[in-house]
Fold each of these.
Amino acid sequence: MKNTILILTLFAGIVTAKAQFTYRVINKHVSGSSAEFELIGYGYVKNTGTVKDTFVWKLNKSMVLNGWGSTLCDKNLCYDTAIYSSSFELEAGDSGVLNLYIYPNKIAGSGGLGITIHKLSDSSNAIKDTIYYDTWTVGVEHFEAESSILLYPNPAGNRLYVEHKNLKPGQVKIFNVLGQLQQVISYDATKNGIDVSILSSGVYTLSYTDEAGKTVFKKFQKL
């Protein structure tokens, strides 16, 4: 048994050493008005190896809303929206930005922009990640909705209640601090409260989208 554990530990160390880079996302979930020119997901890659290396990135635009523009800026360039992949070099120990951009073009909705990164010499040890974006339509209705929506109790125990003065049918989504979708529920069903007992303790973002596509975001804490 001891020999087996030793072999597995050494194998895991080899995999880590072969990768020799890290990728960190600063803001996993980005939200803003659809009238904004751009929304930015900030990230960077670090060469943890001992020699200069070339890193390749590739965008996955399958979750980008129809009508949105999307692109990336690395340490060298900001690319045209038609570009899906490129590469750059990093000296040993250096870091370089990899910022993911969405251009809403006045289109409200939710989507994501994925990225895959690997060394030019080793595509088998790739890192994949996604930054999620939410945009809303600016208008009187949006600000009325934002001021009238109420979450209680906050902090929440096992159930969270949503109140809105117009009580229009819609959809509620709950995201964790990494921007990962945790729950989706119809607005009508929230009259009896949302069962949040499955959520771990922490801070979450609730989005409410009405039939017209207008979205409001509210944060709450789960005990």
Note: The helical segments are 2-19, 140-148.
Amino acid sequence: MAAILDTEPDVLEHISYDQAPQTLRQLAEDGYDIIVPHSSGYEAAVLEVAPEYPGTWFIIYSDLSTTNDLPNVAGWAVHWNQVGYMAAAIGCAASDAKSIGMIVSAPIPAMTRWTGGSYQFSEDSSDVLGYPCEFNDVWTGDFLDAAKAKQAAQALIDGGADVLFDAADAAGAGAVEAAVQNDVKYVGGVSDQCQQAPGIIITSVIMNFDVAYEQMGEFYKDGSLEPAIYSMNVVNTGIDIASKCNPDPDVDAAIDAVISGVEAGDIVVDPTREKTP
């Protein structure tokens, strides 16, 4: 995006949702033309602040439920249900016990839909893979506390899950640690996590950030950016699969079955389905 617009981006990290309105106002006052909050949890702040700065574009990456008809708000919305569906498919295909577990942080839209997609796959598994697969989730209520995520992962393992994955942000490192200590497999998420635990991570369901940010830059540059919600999904490669850390023909078959099924319309992953704690 920065290269397309021939500029250098400024990056702010660890901005809490409570701090977001103040931070967004300051960035707009400082003259930024485009502000990209990178989480669905910033939606309320964007919808509050954007009307005050009509000359600034506010573009949320992750998820956005509405633009509120504001002319300077857009969203690149990951089809989080597909992310969860794909992670669960990989997990079930790799599971000897046919029981998988998910560690989830807090019930913001991205996380509830991610979990909803995984739950949908557990219902579809007999049709897609030919056998049922049990799915359980544990919520920690925290994005940063790795100890809580590790405890949640251990509870799932003790309950019989032999493949785990998470929607827990930084806290997910604790869940991976539990998987390593118990020698159970893991499906990475968001980015390629293979090097985090090479013997444990099967593969990762990743967000193709480059596709989204290139689109943002191109649309802004050529004047075609609209106050709309743009989907990032399996079909347009906004959601993708990383390199296989531990190749498994059953996993490869599951990935192919889901992607081809979604592309053909034989598998419809409900984009509105949510699961809460």
Note: The mean pLDDT is 95.
